[in-house]
Amino acid sequence: MPVVRDLRVLLRLRNFRRLLSVRLLSQGADGVYQVALAAYVVFSPEKQTSATAVASAMAVLLLPYSLVGPFAGVLLDRWRRRQVFVYGNLLRALLAAATAVLVLGHAPDWLFFASALCVTAVNRFVLAGLSAALPRVVDAERLVLANSLSPTAGTLAATAGGALAFGVRIVASGSDAAVVLAGAVLYACASLVSLSLAPDLLGPDRHPARPRLARVLAETARELLAAVRHLAAPPRREAASALAAMTLMRFCYGALLVLLLMLCRYALADTPEGGLRLLGVALALSGMGFFAAALVTPWVAGRFGPHRWIAVCSATAMVLEPALGLPFATGPLMAAAFVLGLITQGAKIATDTIVQSGVEDGFRGRIFSVYDVLFNVAFVGAAGVAALMLPPDGRSAVLVTLVAILYGAIAAGLVRSERRQAVQQR
Q1: For residue 266, is it within any domain?
Q2: How many domains does the chain contain in total?
Q3: Rounded CA separation 274/387 (Å)
Q4: Are 317 and 340 in contact (CB under 8 A)?
Q5: pLDDT band at residue 1 under the 50/70/90 scheme
Q6: Within 10 Å of residue 106's Cβ, how many Cβ atoms?
Q7: Final residue of a domain: which of 202, 219, 253?
Q8: Between 88 and 295, whose confidence is greater?
Q9: How far is CA 378 from CA 201, 259, 403, in A?
Q10: Are residues 178 and 309 in the same domain?
Q11: Bond from prior residue into 204 cis (ω within 30 degrees of 0)
């Protein structure tokens, strides 16, 4: 098969293998660190976890992506990318080791979160740098394949890192500090592997004159505002409505995830360790739903249209989410994890397609930066709302019902938007 042949050629490229190794180690360490953070904040036996603590953890994991992400490229175009990998991963290894010390010393939560926030903020630069460096180690003919392989391999590495974290917890008798240290070791390994790449191999190319950094950052902010105005114009109404729907669906998913975390911690398992294992099963089922969406969505969206597929996903969630969630029983909730994974990812794939095809090429990159910000801010905002509404054990029929109503409103809004566009086109 041509794809298999090209894949073999890619893996024969020494510098591609080295860059891929940096990605695998970095994202594997991210998986370890994220499980450690969740275990310490939510499932630590000596802590009485609240939904507010869960919301804080999600903010730590996701807000750096939203706040730093749109501007990361500006700095990456000024720094040698290989050095970003070397020093960025080394810095994360040191910060992760410091986080382990804070865990052992039972430091105040704010200090723990500050350390974790620094680790995840650096991650944005490393991931963006890995994508930017790829054309320097792969020829143009195989760049699409490399862009498909590398992020997918990174996601699998993060999943494997999460599994490794569970294994370390078992061996270390539930020690969160040991799990964090395992992540620190992987970050250090990523830094060492980065040294195998030549300092100037990954770029960027040096130019004799560069604008001042403050000017470039201000220009970036203006360009993002221009992208928002472009998206709001009538010809892009379908893309704007899909993006708004996806943002609200991400909000729903975030609220339900916090509810599931609290249920696993207090209502569905007898011990914190049992709750953590149950959460692992739920996340695995949600991942299977993501995979199923990748198989189903191209056919369904091609047959009915991506806009209608998003509406179908929302309407399905409106019906199944309360049916499976309101019993607050393990079996239905595990089924709900799979269904919500499928629905959320299916809608996202369709939204990506609509945005890619519905906006001008010159604005596409900036609009996806806005998309990324909305996606993560909605998730963090949902965690905050859930923290205000959830009782200590997570059993909230009110939250489940409100989320179902919001899913229904999303579906109705999409149907209304499609009808309006059909009338205007006549």
Answers
A1: yes
A2: 2
A3: 23
A4: yes
A5: very low
A6: 10
A7: 202
A8: 88
A9: 38, 16, 14
A10: no
A11: yes
